[in-house]
Amino acid sequence: MLSIRWRLTLFHAAAILVVAAVLIGILAVVAIRGVQTSVEETARARAVEAVGLLESGVPPTDQALAGLTEGSVYLLIRDGRGRAMANVGVPSSDIDAVGADVRDAVWRDVLATGQPVTRGPEEMYVYAAPVAVGRSDARVVEAWKSYDDFGGNILPFATFTVVAVPAGLLLAIVGSYLLARSALSPVDAIVRSARAITESDLARRLPVQRPRDELGRLASTFNDLLARLEVAFRQRDETLTQQRRFVADASHELRTPLTSIQGYARMLDQWALDDPATARESVAAIRREAERMEALVEALLRLARGDEGAPLTLTTTDLRDLATEVIGSVRTGAGQSVALTESLPDTPVRATVDRAAIAQAVAILLDNAVKYTPAGGRVTLSIGRTGNVTEIAVTDTGIGIAPTHLPHIFDRFYRVDAARGAGGTGLGLAIARQIAERYDGTIAVASTPGEGSTFTLRLPAAGDDTALDPPN
Q: pTM for this one?
């Protein structure tokens, strides 16, 4: 199969050849017709001049008629019986190719009709004209002229055609090939660059030599595809890295309670059953670690369902009622060591959400605040509205978070220093952020070490409630 370059070259050469053949054919027809016309006009003019001279009284043998033979014209003057009275000029050898019956038919037709008669085109052309009776003994003047006499004029044209057509065709092939190579040169560059691109080197791009032509637009489109692939592969690598880290962290978190359970179980099996107090302590520890594992597994399942986009049950909810329910539940578990207060607006604050999911996110923020607030501290839940965004803020007077930890505080299994090592799975804030993002919302934290932290959950508002001030 020929390459596109050679196919374009041959197509252009064939097109040029066809056009040249048509032009040459037209020129040849025009040239031949011109020769015929010239021969016929010359013969007619000489015959008419000869008749004029004879009718004026010039004898057929007069030298005045000799001047009419210029240009290889042969004059034959006949009497009333068709006998030759005079031959003026040198007859062409082609006249012998004309049969005697044809030559005789010419003068007979003139004598019979009294009108000029022509014969041709053959090898020779003849124009026979009648001479008026009474003005000369001659009755017929025949002017013969060979087409070959003017054929020599076509010879240079034919020679030029024989030489020029192959040369022109060769130039057309070379020019078409060079043009095709120049036009398709970006393709070679694109192929070389594309072959050099690998999965690990998607940052490379194809060269775009002429952005406005078809190949340039193709290369630009391919570069856009490479950019999207680069982003997709980068996201894939980041996702795989996160998954590996997630599996490693989950394995580590599960290993700790499992190790503790195995240790207590071994102790019970070996000797602790003989000591009731130690046995009760071991059973309590096993139960405690099992509950910790259950909480961790439940948190992992929540994250997995959130990653898969589990369906939500959406309802338009007044977030004031939701906040009152959640803070009451958390207050019961927190006891009296930390004061839990709420700052809620007087008007409804509506949002279209999954009530259970948002309640879980708010509970996580409150539990987290209570856990890291020393005894005698305060945790405040407030709700406000800024434009079309509803804000739920949880503010504590706890130990705060160092600035170096703030960018990672919502990462899965992330824990800060030992001062905040108050237990838990390390997944609560990650779950809260996942819930917020499923509603096109956000969650943010502002913290000052030693003074406390504020976690703000922002969700799209619903309805046309009266504008509220943002939470303090």
A: 0.47
